[in-house]
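Researcher: I'd like a candidate sequence for this fold, 462 residues long. If you have to choose between options at a position, lean toward the conservative one.
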């Protein structure tokens, strides 16, 4: 929308002026819409204009929806969307007129008589006899004539994915989008299983506590029963809390109290979650850095496994390297660059970094000048393939060890060798609370520090 579209200034006050589209002339008799925005401030007028424009767009969209004749599943979904749009329209228009929208029953209970009278007078100012379409929607907005739509939590989740979280998904790859959805959908599915696929407007604090207590029972499971982690529980509670807040913000109810507020588990309240163990140096030298031990697996997976050892990278970070820009073997200090790509974001800003290649990781990357197209944006496939290959060959010291254990080993070796804390954080891609001075040291400095912990490896490994 252009900055001042639909805005006109008359006697120093701004007005919302817009013509009804011709295709709606028969059902919307307002012709040219003229509404005072009751402000001299252009900035305020623009915000109120946006709300009025959204309300009208939603109104016309509802007029174009299919009639409620034969309610097939598709038609029912369309009618539910009409109800949502009508509710959003009323909320947006009330906000533009300087009021907070509330359904009529809530208005009667919650508001002072003086404010109700003010709203009635505001409607009367535009009522010149029989109510036109425009006057009806003004009355709906200011007097709460639209009941909150009964949108279930699973339906709200789909609206969240398709309409609300657009910017959050914008820079994610297809695989990252699938993982994002899968993680959030887990919380929805658990809630439906424990409570119900109930309307969003009906979810109470009691329902939220029921879900919280269900998770508590799994975190504090008795000995012999499978225990779940507090972090997983908090992630589910946080996803439900965000869905609830963002959905009602989307429909114009920013002030609605969130039933999932302040529900989370502190670490000391729960059984401490198991940490991924690291590979011991002797295990790496005598079991993994052995010629032929990884023969028979995909060549790209084999190279990635060795590249992890001296870089401490996440497997996906190696797999998603751009061979044109991120694999710098011809540099004075060979290195890799971990950075976001178009349509593929990094986990955190601190994840962006440059890591010198030394030892077996340098030798591995010499065999990967074209990158890893088989595993690009296929993180689950890579992890599953490497974990299976290592277990089948007896290369995991315990059931708790996973391919990610290389990352923990790298961090442990740096710590035990006395490498600077800030450098360790930089190479791991961790945030640090230390003040930032300089750029973390040159690539030469980083390489020389990493050479202090490098594993020896035999000739002929590749």
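Model: Candidate sequence:
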């Amino acid at each position: 929308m252009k900055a001042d579209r639909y805005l006109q200034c008359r006697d120093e006050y701004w007005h919302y002026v817009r013509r009804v589209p011709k295709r709606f002339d028969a059902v919307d008799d307002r012709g040219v819409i003229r509404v005072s925005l009751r402000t001299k401030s252009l900035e305020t007028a623009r915000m109120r204009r946006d709300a009025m424009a959204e309300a009208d767009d939603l109104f016309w969209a509802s007029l174009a929806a299919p009639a409620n004749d034969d309610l097939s599943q598709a038609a029912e979904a369309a009618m539910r969307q009409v109800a949502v749009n009508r509710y959003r329209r009323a909320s947006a228009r009330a906000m533009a007129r300087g009021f907070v929208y509330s359904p009529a029953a809530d208005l009667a209970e919650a508001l002072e008589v003086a404010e109700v009278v003010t709203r009635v007078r505001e409607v009367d100012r535009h009522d010149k006899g029989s109510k036109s379409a425009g006057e009806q929607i003004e009355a709906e907005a200011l007097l709460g004539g639209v009941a909150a739509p009964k949108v279930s939590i699973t339906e709200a989740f789909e609206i969240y994915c398709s309409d609300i979280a657009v910017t959050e998904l914008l820079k994610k790859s297809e695989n990252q989008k699938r993982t994002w959805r899968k993680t959030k959908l887990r919380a929805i599915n658990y809630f439906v299983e424990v409570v119900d696929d109930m309307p969003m407007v009906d979810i109470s604090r009691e329902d939220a506590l029921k879900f919280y207590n269900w998770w508590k029972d799994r975190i504090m499971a008795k000995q012999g029963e499978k225990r779940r982690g507090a972090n997983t529980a908090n992630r589910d509670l946080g996803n439900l809390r965000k869905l609830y807040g963002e959905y009602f913000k989307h429909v114009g109810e920013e002030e609605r109290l969130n039933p999932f507020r302040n529900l989370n588990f502190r670490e000391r309240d729960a059984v401490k979650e198991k940490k991924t163990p690291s590979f011991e140096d002797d295990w790496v030298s005598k079991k993994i850095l052995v010629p032929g031990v990884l023969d028979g697996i995909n060549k790209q997976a084999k190279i990635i496994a060795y590249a992890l050892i001296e870089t401490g990278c996440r497997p996906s970070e190696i797999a998603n390297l751009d061979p044109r820009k991120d694999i710098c073997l011809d540099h004075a200090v060979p290195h890799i660059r971990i950075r976001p790509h178009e349509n593929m974001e990094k986990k955190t800003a601190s994840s962006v970094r440059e890591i010198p290649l030394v030892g077996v990781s340098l030798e591995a990357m010499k065999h990967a000048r074209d990158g890893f197209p088989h595993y690009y944006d296929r993180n689950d496939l890579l992890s599953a393939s490497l974990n299976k290959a290592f277990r089948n060959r007896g290369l995991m010291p315990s059931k708790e060890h996973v391919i990610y254990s290389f990352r923990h080993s790298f961090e442990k070796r740096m710590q035990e060798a006395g490498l600077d804390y800030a450098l360790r954080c930089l190479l791991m891609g961790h945030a640090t609370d230390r003040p930032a001075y300089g750029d973390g040291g040159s690539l030469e400095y980083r390489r020389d520090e990493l050479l202090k912990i490098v594993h020896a490896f035999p000739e002929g490994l590749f």
